[in-house]
Amino acid sequence: MTQTYLDAIGAFHRKRAAADSRQWQERLRSTYDGPSFRDALLNNANVSVIAEVKRRSPSKGWLNEDLDAPALAALYERAGARAISVLTDQPHFGARDADLPSVASAVTIPRLRKDFTVCENDVLDAREMGASAVLLIAALLDDDELVTLSSLAAEINLGALFEVHDKDEVSRSLAAGAMIIGVNQRNLQTFAVDPTHAARVAEVIPDDVVRVAESGLRTPADVHNAGQSGFDAVLVGESFVTSADPFDDVAAFCSVPRRD
Q1: Residue among 108, 46, 14, 17 at smallest CA distance from 233
Q2: Which of the four CATH numbers 3.40.190.10, 3.20.20.70, 3.40.50.150, 2.70.98.10 does domain 34-192+206-212+236-254 have?
Q3: Three-class SS of residue 36?
Q4: Distance CA 47, CA 52 (A)
Q5: Which among 60, 186, 189, 260 is least surrounded, fewest beta carbons within 10 Å?
Q6: What is the DSSP letter of 3?
Q7: pTM, full prediction
Q8: Per-residue pLDDT tens for 79-125?
């Protein structure tokens, strides 16, 4: 099978984690006490929008290299976003050290640390950066890692967004206790977006689990289709960071009813 960008980035992060000498058990000092990421997505009559601060894409290059992370996040919040996603990977996504901490200081809504979580120190780093939740990519983690990392997140009161691409990864995530599952609509091999595949995957996610559609959402019509397919929320980055009028675009996405 052809190596995907996720394989290469995952290998980079595992190598970095292996070289990290910090003892994570000694870092269990405080728990997150802010608003719940899951509750923020659920308590909404419309499709909830997770708006992303994203400077760069591995496949497309720079999207908005010099964006002002806290100012953009504050704009997202004013426009109606229910949560903020912040890319913190520097080598592949061009993130800066201050992006997530500055966003955490600028908004009151929950923050997702969008990164390639592979070890306990990654989870604890997310807490120290000001995150409300961490991303756990099922394609990157084995079953034991999904359980271990999500359990640690729960121990310090962080949410966990489990990202999946197919029904098998849904089953693995549910077995690990997932209560928020994001279906990435982008094929890891071809980069093509297939909303119909995502909708079929969403069908096997139980009703008590929050469903999030990820990738390829460019218009309010895309958000409407996601809502009709059973998704409670959407995660949108590229469309907003490249927009000439992100406030109006975010507001339009946030105005879509969850169901007709």
Answers
A1: 46
A2: 3.20.20.70
A3: coil
A4: 16
A5: 260
A6: P
A7: 0.94
A8: 999 999 999 999 889 999 999 999 999 999 999 999 999 999 999 99
